[in-house]
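for the recovery benchmark. tokens below, seq after
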């Protein structure tokens, strides 16, 4: 048993892949009567919360909402229910990385997040949000959904470059019980809108502010909200202390981002579709050759690298100083080989195509060095004879 439970209904649990404040997500398999096995993600409400009727109702309300989300960016729930007191929902299993992980990866490599990728990802997220914002309820009336937790940890980029928005667990919508409570703050600081930080009733424009904060972080490497502890940041947002780092943003993008980050909802884009259209216009102008395939290649390379970390570390990088001083036979080519491999590795990473590197042929390289040494000796003999 790799997780805290071995099975849930028709699903076999494989391993835990994520944990949140209310639930744990497992990698699982759905068993069919004919022996076919379908990989799925299974979200299970934490046992200690299963006695809270309000939380249980909210959990299944989230599942019912997600079952109706028929958009490529949103992750639908395939099934949900309760088995022996365990509340669960089964979803498509996504092979990819969260935007939070990708952003940190670029930061560790001292590289800014690529402009084209940032614009493309957030335009896709906004497409999904617009679909959810426009969704009607079972009675045909507008649900007026607000996600309330648009943040990097809830955005996944798959190995094929597809973008997915997760977790409507704290979403506000009309048919959800107690979905319009005032005075209770829900969400992730610092991705809250000012009105959300003040625990006011929200509309779709709150999600647009959160998406703009995520985009600002991708473009500048920093948040428009001042650093501090969670409560300090919440108070700053509530007081509308939002300061975009405009000098780090391309001139043509500044009006778009400043509009989306407007403290007053009336000054923002009216819909997520409007915001997405502005980002796609910028993408076409600034990165006309952008290809989401390259984004998928980076994610795929990252996952393969983490699955086999030793694959790219099979050659030790020798220090520079001893390179030209090796006295013993065969030592002179070792440091240059390591440096050449290092240069090739950095070049591959700069193309965002990380993976096992091809071997550098040793014998031809040593032969080249021998040739250089012979030519140098001949030149020296010729010069000294002339002198």
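predicted aa per position
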């Amino acid at each position: 048993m790799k997780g805290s439970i071995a099975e849930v209904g028709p699903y076999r649990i494989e391993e835990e892949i994520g944990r949140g404040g209310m639930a744990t997500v497992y990698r699982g398999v759905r068993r069919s009567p004919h022996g076919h096995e379908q990989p799925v993600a299974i979200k299970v409400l934490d046992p200690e919360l299963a006695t809270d009727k309000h939380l249980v109702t909210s959990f299944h309300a989230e599942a019912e909402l997600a079952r109706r989300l028929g958009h490529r960016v949103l992750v639908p729930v395939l099934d949900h229910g309760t088995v022996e007191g365990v509340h669960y929902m089964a979803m498509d299993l996504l092979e990819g990385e969260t935007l939070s992980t990708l952003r940190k990866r670029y930061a560790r490599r001292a590289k800014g997040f690529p402009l084209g990728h940032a614009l493309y990802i957030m335009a896709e997220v906004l497409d999904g949000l617009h679909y959810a914002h426009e969704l009607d309820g079972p009675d045909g009336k507008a649900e007026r959904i607000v996600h309330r937790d648009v943040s990097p940890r809830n955005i996944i980029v798959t190995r094929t470059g597809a973008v997915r928005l997760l977790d409507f667990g704290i979403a506000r919508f009309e048919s959800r019980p107690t979905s319009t409570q005032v005075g209770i703050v829900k969400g992730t600081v610092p991705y809250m809108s000012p009105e959300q930080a003040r625990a006011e009733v929200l509309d779709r424009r709150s999600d647009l502010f959160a998406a703009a904060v995520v985009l600002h972080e991708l473009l500048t490497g920093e948040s428009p909200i001042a650093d501090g502890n969670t409560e300090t940041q919440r108070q700053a947002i509530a007081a509308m202390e939002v300061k975009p780092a405009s000098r780090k943003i391309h001139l043509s993008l500044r009006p778009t981002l400043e509009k989306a980050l407007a403290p007053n909802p009336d000054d923002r884009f009216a819909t997520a579709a409007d915001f997405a259209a502005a980002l796609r216009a910028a993408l076409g102008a600034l990165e006309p050759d952008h290809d989401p395939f390259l984004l998928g290649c980076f994610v795929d390379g990252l996952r393969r690298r983490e699955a086999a970390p030793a694959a790219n570390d099979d050659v030790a990088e020798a220090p520079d100083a001893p390179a030209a001083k090796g006295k013993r036979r065969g030592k002179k080519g070792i440091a240059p080989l390591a440096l050449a491999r290092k240069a090739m590795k950095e070049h591959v990473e700069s193309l965002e195509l990380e993976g096992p590197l091809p071997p550098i042929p040793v014998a031809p390289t040593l032969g080249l060095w021998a040739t250089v040494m012979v030519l140098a000796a001949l030149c020296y003999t010729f010069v000294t004879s002339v002198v």
